[in-house]
Amino acid sequence: MTQGPGSLEGKVALITGASSGIGAAAARVFAREGARVVLVARREDRLAELSAELRAGGAQASHCAGDVQISADVERAVSHAVQTYGRLDVAFNNAGAGGDVAPLHLLEDAAYDLVMDTNVRGVWNCLRHEIRAMTAHGGSIVNTSSVAGLVAPSVPAPYIAAKHAVIGLTKAAAVECAADGVRVNAIAPGLTRSEMVEDWFARVPGQQAKSMASAPQNRMAEPEEVAEAAAWLCSERASFVTGATLPVDGGRTTW
Ligand SMILES: NC(=O)c1ccc[n+]([C@@H]2O[C@H](COP(=O)([O-])OP(=O)(O)OC[C@H]3O[C@@H](n4cnc5c(N)ncnc54)[C@H](OP(=O)(O)O)[C@@H]3O)[C@@H](O)[C@H]2O)c1
């Protein structure tokens, strides 16, 4: 059987939070599907290592270190994509932070600020610069929300508020940009193996077993399983999907 072109063949894709977890897995999946990828996060050494790995595998990949909380950093990353590859077609706005674990009345304001500034202002910054780069020719954007954007699991309240806000921004942008041929969707991952989750389990005894048992599949996702859903939504195979939030959660929000 001949293998057809990848679902993102020739597309230029920007991926935030690409230095680990779901974002790093997405870099590999998007590159495998034929995209030219630009990797964004704060840890430049990780990005350099991953983009070199992708290039060694035959992909076109580069990186631009930056903090999604800072509009100028995101603007620089989008410009890097356009200057390096000529355009921006696809964006996976995936950078996020879980923040301190405590009941909301015991959290400091700084904990709220970090989570909102990373997860909500970060997506806000990304959407604004990406949409400006896409309106002339269309494109597809996927934002990473969470099951915590759909229900209120046992995670900190600012994170729940932030991930609900990501879904609100996704819907607003989808409606505003539909006429320009830009689709905007969100994924809502459930428990997924990553640095964020390993850190959470290390800090809260018993949380791992409790979290695994909260979904019918009774396991954690591998980051690649979430990345595959993002790749599909980013691709033209999802051409009539916009404003949607796709749970990728082993059934966590079903029962
Ligand atoms: N793992 C799960 O169970 C789960 C479930 C639902 C949703 N999510 C969401 O999935 C996304 C990816 O998380 P993950 O699970 O893959 O965890 P992770 O391995 O900790 O990845 C988080 C990524 O975000 C980047 N990041 C954090 N703050 C940033 C900032 N200010 N500017 C730029 N990049 C920043 C980190 O890179 P640097 O530190 O190098 O900047 C890292 O690449 C997040 O939005 C998270 O909320 C995860």
TrEMBL record:
Ketoreductase domain span: 11-185
Keyword Glycosyltransferase: no
One MF term in the entry's GO annotations: oxidoreductase activity
SUPFAM superfamilies, per database record: NAD(P)-binding Rossmann-fold domains
Classification via CDD domains: SDR_c (cd05233)
Pfam families, sorted: adh_short_C2
InterPro entries: KR_dom, NAD(P)-bd_dom_sf, SDR_fam
Keyword Repressor: no
Entry keyword set: NAD, Oxidoreductase
Family: Belongs to the short-chain dehydrogenases/reductases (SDR) family.
Protein name: Short-chain dehydrogenase
Organism: Streptomyces mutabilis
